[in-house]
Amino acid sequence: MTCNIDGIRSGGGHRPGLQHFSIDHEGGTVSVSRGGRGRTVVLCPGLYSTQAGLHVLIELLRRDHDVVAFDLRGHGLSTPAARYSFADFLGDLAAVVAAVRLSDPAPVLAGYSLGADLAAHYASVHPGGVGGLVLVDGANPIPEPFLSAADMPEFRAMWENSAAPDRDDTRDAADRVSLTAQQILDLNQELDMIRTRTLLGRYRDIDAPISMIMSASMAGGGAGERTRWRNRNWREGIERLSRARPDITTHWLDADHGLAFTHAPEIARIVADHIGRLPGPGH
Length: 283
Fold this sequence. Notes:
alpha/beta; Rossmann fold; 9-stranded mixed sheet; 9 helices; 9 strands; 36% helix; 18% strand; globular; disordered N terminus
């Protein structure tokens, strides 16, 4: 993976008291905000989530930490791109970490959903470059893919209903997503393969302390057979990880996959506790 960072441009029209800028990256721009004091935390959002959508969690984290938040390509105020693959999104994260000129000690990476997978992969190829990892309901080496052929009509209908870039959208531009339903489906299938086939090996290469924050009902609390199976598959993935890396701390929250929005105070407290246990000057 290579990152071509051509420069940083200041921006305006955002919340006061924060630094806002965009990074020129691979022909587009990545929107970044930075604020707070203390140990640097780079927060990587997930697929279909933005800085605007995660603002409650971000502001809670900024009470005690220097938080760098950003929008992935095609999300929020970052520009759309020609490609949307796992490697492309990983390049966005790497560009942000490189551009903000982080000081010693190394930053903590916190990621939600797809963002957790990106943070784990980044840490696995940058030994010594990450001070700690807090992975929120993602980066889970599940034993079986979530999306089977039988699931595709259900998921296609779900994403076609919510992912329509050309429709008249009343949401603020900072919370819009440009990806099509097909692009989202393709990314979910790619992520399934990464999680089931290669992710566990990545953990063996990570030298930073890791805390997981996982939802007890990732697929929701419904009684349907596939819902129960998805929740069981999610828990079995963490059990698989715990056997390979018993040093990892896991926190289970009574929530579904929307926990970054519904349980922001609990997540912020766990992040603070994780950082408080890290070696070196913290906060």
